[in-house]
Design a protein that fits this description.
It contains 30 helices and 15 strands. The strands form four sheets. A five-stranded antiparallel β-sheet has the order 1-5-4-3-2. A five-stranded mixed β-sheet has the order 10-9-11-14-15, with helices on one face. It has a three-stranded antiparallel β-sheet with strand order 6-7-8, with helices on one face. With about 750 residues, the chain is an alpha+beta fold.
Length: about 750
């Protein structure tokens, strides 16, 4: 402990509490942390000790003269050595020295208290509790003894015992704030924040005026811990309204920094940001505000010293740097996006399909996305070529620095909430380490190829975060080395960012994609129309031409299609004039856009014959259903199909369509089917078999217009059968057998009836 704390504040040892506070605030305005970091730290350290009655008393007791008077010259020398070790945080060296002092002087208050503190710092909680008990036995009215006992019990997770000790310390030193804060901490650690609130409310009713501000601040901390944010905001607003003097605003500013550090440590970034926003409104010039706010700045707006530091980080980093995506990767991405866009355009323009509205919307969306990607990657490639530094990330003492192509992102390290380092390997061999850093809602990731370097980085990040949070908690963040890396004014009010060019390029690319998609749809529609016309030309039947004209076709093909249909009609008329004048007249009067109906009125009967097979032969019986109305209906449909084929062959496909019923053009046919005959032997190339083949005879009268003819149809007896048909007959499939019999007869009848339609006599 320095012997010049009074001198640091320009005071004498007989100064009272008011003199200490007045001197401190006056010197802070003279030596602010933003410009006099080292001097400010000394002032803050002196004020922390002298503003508290207990710590001031301990400090006074440790000074050379007082120590010599209390301990004697020899022990005073040992005591000073122990204090030097404590100041250097060499607690292991200080413990045996202090143990030697208390062995000689068990009642030595300062030595015993210092020994307890060192043991607590080393985690030797049981020994610390023993010495704290001895301190309480020798000095029962000393508040430090139960305070140390409480720290030891808290470390051992004996929360109820620790709370009892802290309450006792508060009774012994009602104006000392350390028992209050310690009791609140132990309640929060025991997840009993409500008990802490009750205690603070009780103390506020009896506490002296000098402690009320601190108690109210502590209450806000508990409300933040319990996430009762509305109550906390109201309490803060009341504190800010009462902070009318510079001293009160300074005290409140320190509290905001301390509370923000606690919230950052608990990863409550949104709450911490809200508190820092209040701090910015309360004290805009306070350095910690700028050093806790992430900001993105154009590279051109940075001071020369910052640009020089950034340029040096790629080759000789001060702490760590990590390369980002380079120009080669940007070139590959731009080339890939351009190739994708051009390939899609080529496929679209080669299409010969007609696009529906839904397909057009889908293609436009697809092209807009591909165009936007191309525009963004091309701009990225151009910016990469022109970038003075390229992309990389670096660790500054206060910031995680993410350097872009023409702007830099500065994220305060106090915001670092999570470090995830994962070692990756292949077949048990280390390859790299993947880092994921979380700064509240914002995250960054990168890889490091050296395992040792990755472990060093993880350790460095933990150390930086812990140190910066401690500095923010103690109000000294603005005095840290490197705090002047960027001007506070630049961090607090960054220059307006230039228009986002990537948005313009992205929109331009998307617009180009939509234009190309619409153009491709026009080309595809024209190609579809061309192909449809070519297909129609390849099959120029009247039916096909009429269907094409009903489309409707584009204007450029409508005339040729109509001319082709008229030509077809003229040719059909020419063929029908001599052979079928009635059909020719019907066709001449018919609209080329429609087919002329020919009606068939069929009536007749068929009776099954009694047939006998020779001995030993297999007889495939004809089913009686073939001779009923339903069976005749099926065969009449076959007759109509055969007759339709003949009409299409002679008059042209699509000029006439055959239908059942009666109308202007009706072919009437009355028929009778008779069956007779014997069983014939028929040999296939491989299999001899015997099957029933009766004679079928159709006799009838056909009438068309004024023409009436007798028609007799006798099919050939020998019929070529497929292997499938033979197999069906051998299995006794009578339906297949009857079909073989009747099909031939009705096909022959269709040929005979067509002669009636196309007879010159008609």
């Amino acid at each position: 402990m320095s012997d010049d704390l009074y001198a640091e504040l320009n005071l004498t040892p007989d100064a009272n509490a008011r003199d200490i506070k007045k001197a401190y605030f006056g010197l802070v305005r003279q030596f602010p942390p933003e410009t006099h970091a080292e001097q400010f730290q000394k002032l803050r350290a002196a004020y922390e000790v002298l503003s508290n009655e207990e710590t001031r008393k301990a400090y006074d007791a440790s000074r050379g003269a007082a120590a010599s008077e209390q301990l004697g010259d020899e022990l005073a020398v040992i005591m000073r050595s122990a204090l030097e070790a404590i100041e250097a945080r060499e607690f292991e060296r200080a413990v045996p020295l202090l143990e030697g002092v208390v062995k000689e002087r068990p009642e030595a208050e300062e030595a015993r208290g210092r020994l307890c503190s060192c043991l607590l710092a080393l985690g030797r909680l049981g020994e610390a509790a023993t010495h704290a008990g001895e301190l309480a036995r020798h000095h029962p009215t000393l508040a430090q003894a139960p305070l140390l006992l409480g720290y030891a019990a808290q470390g051992l997770k004996h929360f109820h015992e620790a709370r009892t000790h802290f309450l006792r310390a508060g009774e012994l030193a009602p104006q000392d704030f350390r028992p209050v804060r310690s009791l609140v901490d132990v309640d929060l650690e025991a997840n009993d924040g409500e008990a802490a609130l009750v205690y603070l409310d009780q103390r506020l009713t009896t506490a002296p005026e000098s402690m009320r501000l601190g108690l109210r601040m502590e209450r806000v901390s508990v409300l933040h811990h319990l996430e009762r944010l509305d109550e906390a905001a109201k309490a803060l607003a009341a504190l800010e309204a009462e902070a009318t003097t510079a001293e009160l605003k300074e005290e409140l500013g320190w509290f905001y920094e301390r509370e923000a550090a606690s919230l950052f440590a608990r990863k409550k970034h949104a709450h911490a940001d809200a508190l820092l926003a209040r701090l910015a409104a309360l004290a805009p010039s306070r350095g910690s505000v700028a050093l806790t706010r992430p900001v993105t700045l154009p590279l051109s707006a940075l001071p020369e010293s910052a640009r020089t530091w950034l340029a040096a980080q790629r080759q000789n980093p001060e702490l760590f740097s990590f390369p980002g995506v380079g120009v080669v990767a940007d070139s590959v991405m731009a080339l890939g996006a351009t190739g994708l866009f051009c390939g899609m355009a080529l496929l679209a323009f080669m299409s010969d399909s007609q696009w529906s509205t839904g397909e057009l919307v889908f293609v436009c969306t697809l092209f807009a996305g591909a165009g936007a990607l191309q525009g963004a990657t091309l701009l990225r490639w151009v910016r990469s070529l022109k970038s003075p530094l390229g992309r990389f990330s670096a660790i500054h003492r206060l910031f995680y620095v993410d350097v872009g192509l023409d702007e830099v992102r500065f994220i305060p390290m106090v915001r670092l909430s999570h470090i995830n380092a994962t070692h990756q390997g292949n077949n048990g061999v280390y390859t790299h380490t993947t880092f994921g850093l979380s700064f509240g809602p914002e995250g960054h990731s990168f890889s490091i190829s050296s395992q040792q370097r990755a472990e060093d980085l993880a350790q460095l990040l933990h150390q930086l975060r812990g140190r910066l949070l401690d500095l923010l908690h103690s109000g000294m963040l603005a005095g840290e080395e490197g705090a002047d890396f960027l001007p506070a004014a630049l961090l607090l009010k960054p220059p307006a960012r230039a228009p986002q060019r990537h948005r313009l390029w992205t929109l331009a690319g998307a617009g180009l994609g939509v234009v190309l998609a619409l153009s491709a749809s026009v080309v595809a529609q024209r190609a579809f129309e061309d192909q449809r016309w070519l297909d129609t030309q390849g099959d120029q039947t009247p039916r096909t031409l009429r269907q094409y004209l009903a489309g409707p076709p584009p204007a450029r093909f409508k005339g040729p299609a109509e001319a082709a249909l008229a030509k077809k009609k003229a040719a059909a008329l020419q063929r029908l004039q001599a052979g079928a004048p009635l059909l020719a007249r019907a066709l001449e009067a018919q609209n080329p856009g429609e087919a002329t109906p020919l009606f068939l009125d069929l009536s007749g009967e068929a009776t099954p014959a009694t047939l006998a097979a020779p001995a030993g032969s297999k007889l495939a019986e004809l089913p009686a259903s073939e001779f009923l109305a339903t069976g005749r209906q099926r065969h009449e449909d076959e007759l109509i199909a055969a007759l339709q084929s003949k009409v299409d062959q002679l008059a042209g496909v699509g000029w006439f369509v055959l239908k059942r019923g009666a109308g202007p053009l009706t072919l009437k046919f009355a028929y009778q089917l008779s069956l007779s005959g014997n069983v014939y032997r028929y040999k296939t190339p491989n299999t001899p078999l015997t099957l029933l083949w009766p004679e079928a005879k159709l006799a009838g009268t056909a009438t068309f217009g004024e023409v009436q003819r007798n028609v007799i149809a006798v099919p050939a007896r020998e019929v070529s059968l497929s292997q499938q048909a033979i197999s069906a007959i051998l299995k006794g499939d009578s339906s297949t057998a009857s079909t073989l019999v009747f099909d031939a007869a009705w096909a022959e009848l269709g040929t005979q009836l067509s002669s009636v339609l196309f007879s010159s006599a008609g």
